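Protocol step 4 of 5: obtain the predicted structure for the target chain.
Materials: sequence only (see below). No template structures provided, no constraints applied. The aim of this step is simply to have a reference model before the mutagenesis design in step 5. Sequence pasted as it appears in the construct record:
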Amino acid sequence: MSSFYSSKHDRCPIDCSVEFFLDFSSQETFEGFIENISESGMCLITTKHLDIGQDLTINTNIFLPSHTASVCWIEQNNDGSYKFGLKFR
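Step 4 output (structure tokens):
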């Protein structure tokens, strides 16, 4: 996890696939994995590049405190995927 990131809540590791979309009207979906999760946010790994401050809607079968989140930080992985810190809204 990024050294410049701090969370209000402890993160719990998880390996769960998710779908998400950026524009509610088009509902074009993208895929990713949740690496860890807390009451206030989660870490999403995906090949779709997102920007800091960008909002997204998450679709998964697990319980989430919220299904909408904003990107707080970004790291690029060696395999070309991205790791995003998301804050639930």
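Step 4 remarks: The radius of gyration is 12 Å. Residues 39 and 61 are 16 Å apart (CA to CA).
Proceed to step 5.
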